[in-house]
Each structure stands twice: as C-alpha cells, then as structure tokens.
Amino acid sequence: KDRYRELMRVSHIWRDLVNRIRFGFGHQTDRSPGLGDLALYCPACPQPGINLPPSWKDSYDVWLVMQRYIVDGNFTAQHMKMKTPEDNVSLADGKGYMKLSCSNHRAVNAANIQRSNLRATGVGATACARHGCFVPHAVVDFQKGERSVVVL
C-alpha cells in the first residue's frame, strides 16, 4: 500500500514542531504564536536591542544602520485550487512569512473567469535589501491577476 500521503502529513507536522521549538513555542502550552512569530528576521541587519549596543545612536550614523527593503513579485506563479480543501490542515496560517489576503472583489473575479481553477496567480514579497532575507509577514499571494496590493 502507498503510504506517501501519510508520510507527507507527518513530515509537515514534524517541520511545524521543529519550527515552533526554534522560536520558543514548542514546549510552552500557555503561549501560542501570533502573526509573524514563526519567521526569522534578517539576523545580519542592525537591530536596536538585539545586535546593536545600547549607545548605537552616539556611535553610528543613522544612514549606516537604517533598514533597507526591496519589494518584488512573480506574476506567473500559479497555485491550483485543491480538489478537497477540507483535507488541508493549516499548521501555521499567517504566523510565518505569508500574510493572508482577501480576493473577493467583483471586478477582479469577473475579469478572471478563465482562471477559475487557480487559487493564486502570483506571489509578492518584501526582503532585506542587504542580505535578501524575507521580512516576516510580508509575503502575499496575488489573487487572480496583476492588481495593486499593499504589501507592508
């Protein structure tokens, strides 16, 4: 008998548990992760209170420690709708890099009737301009075509 489906489910759960342990939510049952809590911000970028000394304002120029971001999108990534969405178990919905978005707009839906089998038609992300690390909670699906969305 093919056990691939069960293996994939167990591997998803294992990755979620490892991720929760890495961010301090694995063994604590009194606290659950919030939006963006299971994502790692760029560890090399200067962050007051984390990797900058308390007197950083006196030691460094503001332009040197300023956070810089880039925003990019892929308008050709197509994500198909699931045949049985009730079987999908979300382990960390919105708690990592992805931000949940709304797609129920009449004009957009009417213009994209031919794409009715797609859940998303692209992806956009904000990343650290220095090192390329994704910013927590700043990756979005483009729902049904190229429309303007607020990323941050």
Summarize the structure.
This protein has 152 residues and is an alpha+beta fold. It has helices spanning 4-22, 56-59, 62-65, 106-111; strands spanning 69-74, 79-80, 118-120, 122-128, 134-142.
Walkthrough of the structure:
It is a single chain. With 152 residues, the chain is α+β, with helices and mostly antiparallel strands. It is built from four helices and five strands. It has helices at residues 4-22, 56-59, 62-65, 106-111, and strands at residues 69-74, 79-80, 118-120, 122-128, 134-142. The strands form two sheets. Strands 1-4-5 form a three-stranded antiparallel β-sheet, with no helix packed on it. A two-stranded antiparallel ribbon has the order 2-3. Mean pLDDT is 75; it is low at 102-113.
| Strand count | 5
Q: How much helix is in the residues?
A: 10-25%
Number of helices: 4
Report strand order across the widest sheet: 1-4-5
SSE inventory with pairings:
Layout: H1 4-22, H2 56-59, H3 62-65, E1 69-74, E2 79-80, H4 106-111, E3 118-120, E4 122-128, E5 134-142
Antiparallel strand pairs: 1-4, 2-3, 4-5
Core attributes:
5 strands, 4 helices, three-stranded antiparallel beta sheet, alpha+beta, two-stranded antiparallel ribbon, 152 residues, flat
